[in-house]
């Protein structure tokens, strides 16, 4: 597994990097087969250290976890525990999908935009109806089954996931509803 360990405006020593590789490697290898790479980012917010970890699996799924603590090692240990708990929870489903799928998840390119928020205090009429684009990025839309999409959304801790349903051309969406259930938007595929 490839590791990318970095700090935002803080130095990360060799001892911490070794600790991250050892602990995260054991946790991921225990529950997921063939992880491809891991990204761990440390930062300091006021008096707390923050750790964000993302692990990409060979099946195309991504697991994410984050934690905060007053010490940098404690922040990573809490983050690693969260990652391990997620992977343990989905171990059977991860392995089942892995055996079913001989090829990695197919990804389609797309553009992702961040739009400027409309200031509620501003009573003036906008000059045009075109939104102001703050940033434009490339993103990938995976081709997944609905079960895999829900699992990916849960592993990422995201409120919504856009995906292409395998065998169909339309874009589907799964999202967490306010009542705690999962919603699925499946557009009609008319030829």
From TrEMBL:
Compartment(s): Cytoplasm
InterPro entries, A to Z: HPF/YfiA_ribosome-assoc, HPF_long/plastid, RHF-like, RHF/RaiA, Ribosom_S30AE_C, Ribosom_S30AE_C_sf
Keyword Cytoplasm attached: yes
CDD domains the record matches: RaiA (cd00552)
Protein name: Ribosome hibernation promoting factor
Keywords: Cytoplasm, Translation regulation
NCBIfam families cross-referenced by the UniProt entry: yfiA
UniProt lineage: Bacteria, Pseudomonadati, Pseudomonadota, Alphaproteobacteria, Rhodobacterales
UniProt keyword ATP-binding, yes or no: no
SUPFAM superfamilies: Ribosome binding protein Y (YfiA homologue) (SSF69754)
Superkingdom, natural source: Bacteria
GO molecular function: ribosomal small subunit binding
HAMAP family tied to this protein: HPF
GO CC annotation, single: cytosolic small ribosomal subunit
Protein species of origin: Pacificitalea manganoxidans
Gene from which the chain derives: hpf
Record text on subunit structure and interactions: Associates exclusively with 100S ribosomes, which are dimers of 70S ribosomes.
Family to which the UniProt record says this protein belongs: Belongs to the HPF/YfiA ribosome-associated protein family. Long HPF subfamily.
GO BP annotations listed: negative regulation of translational elongation
Pfam families the record matches: Ribosom_S30AE_C, Ribosomal_S30AE
Residue ranges of domain Sigma 54 modulation/S30EA ribosomal protein C-terminal in the record: 130-183
Role noted for this protein: Required for dimerization of active 70S ribosomes into 100S ribosomes in stationary phase; 100S ribosomes are translationally inactive and sometimes present during exponential growth.
């Amino acid at each position: 597994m490839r590791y990318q360990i970095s700090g935002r405006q803080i130095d990360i020593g060799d001892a911490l990097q070794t600790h991250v590789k050892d602990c995260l490697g054991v946790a991921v290898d225990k529950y997921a087969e063939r992880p491809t790479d891991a990204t761990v980012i440390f930062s300091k917010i006021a008096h707390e250290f923050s750790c964000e970890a993302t692990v990409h699996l060979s099946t195309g799924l991504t697991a994410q976890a984050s934690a905060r603590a007053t010490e940098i090692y404690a922040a990573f240990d809490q983050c690693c525990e969260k990652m391990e708990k997620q992977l343990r929870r989905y171990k059977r489903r991860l392995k089942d999908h892995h055996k079913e799928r001989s090829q990695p998840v197919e990804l389609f390119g797309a553009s992702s935009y961040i739009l400027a928020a409309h200031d509620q205090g501003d009573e003036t009429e906008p000059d045009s109806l075109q939104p102001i684009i703050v940033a434009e990025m490339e993103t990938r839309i995976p081709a997944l089954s609905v079960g895999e999409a829900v699992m990916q959304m849960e592993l990422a801790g995201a409120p919504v996931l856009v995906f292409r349903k395998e065998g169909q051309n339309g874009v589907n969406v799964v999202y967490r509803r306010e009542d705690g259930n999962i919603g699925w938007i499946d557009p009609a595929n008319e030829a």
